[in-house]
């Protein structure tokens, strides 16, 4: 992403600032900071005003920021970041400055509040997050690459799934493979949940060995040039006595997942997409065992807007990237989840994930 694109993103932010009556925004969230500036270091604060854009950082990062954040004026922090930012805000005559309420600790808030006795320091909700909802062509290209790595990792891991192998060994192998394929890291702590553990929607890989006849749910994703992927597949480890029920539950989840994909389109709300999938699971009598939302946005963050959820108010538009991941979790028995990533396009959605979805019996 070039300095020119960062300037365009700043312009979009300024339109929103003006609409909400702000003179500027203090940007402290890591993903928002990277999205607007391109700065990849761990410590910097942005001040975006209607005319200008400043990046405040300390001695460690001044050089790096000058190289990466060409749309910003770089300023070195003096005594404290709050004092330095306040000096600039005063000089610029800012009267009403927004901050990101989810991205500031209470202590940081107090530090700024003490300095900002000359202006109105007000929470500005999700201004940058809202711009990030719709991915541009560059972002989509990186997301597709992150998905490709996850798809390849799933194909690779199938030969490692056998009785006696521990869940965490599977997780290590997935990570090792993805990093060799160009991922900079894991998008989250991988879920490898076998047997009764597969009934826990977020059963992070444990030391439990896989056993014959068990369901194994694998939920993982790569980070590629800062963008995430997220995929879940559930397989069964050989034909055990429980296979008929495993197949039955699997087919319901798959039908729900396909209904969700069919319903995912611009021009409606995530509630409708969620309902399309949930109706299938409800009709099969398993509604009480699908207790999470159908999907979430993915981009610089593994969980971002919009959501396919019973109560989401984001109006869906083309370019949004969202997961479709229904599941059925039966305590003591096991669970099934199938998760793809989709991008909303003019008439519906394009499925980004390519890993097979028919039940694999290993
Ligand atoms: Zn996932
Ligand atoms: Zn997910």
| Overall pLDDT metric | 97
Q: Major sheet, described briefly? A: 6 strands, mixed
Helices and strands, in N-to-C order?
Answer: HEHEEHEHEHEHHHEEEEEEHHEEEEEEE
**Biggest sheet, strands in spatial order?**
4-3-2-1-5-6
Low-confidence stretches are: none
Give the CA-CA distance, first to last residue.
42 Å
Rough outline: elongated
Strand-residue fraction?
15-25%
DSSP summary, beta strand count: 19
So how many helices? 10
Bound molecules: zinc ion
Instruction: Decide which structural class fits the backbone.
Output: alpha+beta
- In helices, the fraction of residues equals 25-40%
- Gyration radius (Cα, Å) is 23 Å
Protein described:
The chain is α+β, with helices and mostly antiparallel strands. The chain is built from ten helices and 19 strands. The strands form six sheets. A six-stranded mixed sheet has the order 4-3-2-1-5-6, sandwiched between helices. A three-stranded antiparallel sheet has the order 7-10-11. A hairpin with a 2-residue loop joins strand 18 and strand 19. Helix 7 packs across helix 8 and helix 9 runs antiparallel to helix 10. The longest helix has 21 residues. The protein starts with a helix and ends in an 11-residue tail after the last strand. The mean pLDDT is about 95. Bound molecules: zinc ion (2 copies). One zinc ion binds next to loops.
């Amino acid at each position: 992403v070039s300095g020119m694109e960062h300037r365009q993103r700043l312009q979009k932010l300024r339109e929103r600032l003006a609409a909400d009556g702000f003179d500027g925004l203090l940007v402290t969230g890591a993903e928002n900071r990277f999205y607007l500036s391109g700065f990849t270091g761990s410590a910097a604060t942005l001040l975006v005003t209607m005319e200008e854009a400043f990046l405040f950082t300390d001695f460690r990062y001044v050089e790096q920021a000058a190289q990466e954040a060409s749309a910003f004026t770089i300023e070195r922090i003096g005594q404290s970041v709050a004092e330095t930012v306040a000096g600039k805000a005063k000089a610029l005559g800012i009267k009403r400055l927004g901050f990101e309420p989810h991205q500031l600790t209470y202590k940081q808030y107090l530090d700024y509040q003490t300095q900002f006795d000359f202006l109105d320091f007000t929470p500005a909700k999700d201004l940058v997050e809202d711009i990030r909802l719709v991915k541009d062509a560059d972002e989509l290209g990186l997301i597709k690459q992150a998905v490709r790595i996850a798809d390849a990792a799933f194909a690779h891991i199938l030969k490692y799934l056998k009785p006696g192998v521990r869940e965490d060994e599977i997780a290590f192998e997935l990570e090792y493979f993805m990093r060799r394929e160009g991922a900079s890291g894991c998008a989250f702590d991988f879920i490898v949940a076998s047997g009764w553990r597969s009934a826990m929607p977020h059963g992070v890989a444990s030391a439990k060995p896989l056993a014959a006849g068990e369901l194994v749910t694998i939920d993982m994703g790569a980070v590629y040039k800062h963008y995430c992927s997220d995929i879940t597949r559930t397989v069964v480890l050989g034909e055990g006595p429980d296979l008929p029920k495993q197949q039955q539950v699997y087919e319901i989840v798959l039908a729900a997942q396909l209904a969700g994909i069919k319903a995912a389109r611009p021009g409606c709300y995530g509630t409708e997409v969620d309902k399309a999938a949930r109706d299938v699971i409800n009709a099969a009598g398993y509604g009480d065992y699908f207790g999470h939302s159908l999907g979430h946005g993915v981009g610089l963050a593994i969980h971002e807007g919009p959501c396919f959820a019973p109560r989401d108010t984001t109006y869906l538009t083309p370019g949004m990237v969202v997961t479709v991941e229904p599941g059925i979790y039966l305590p003591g028995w096991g669970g099934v989840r199938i998760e793809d990533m989709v991008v909303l396009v003019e008439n519906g959605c394009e499925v980004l994930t390519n890993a097979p979805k028919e039940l694999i019996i290993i």
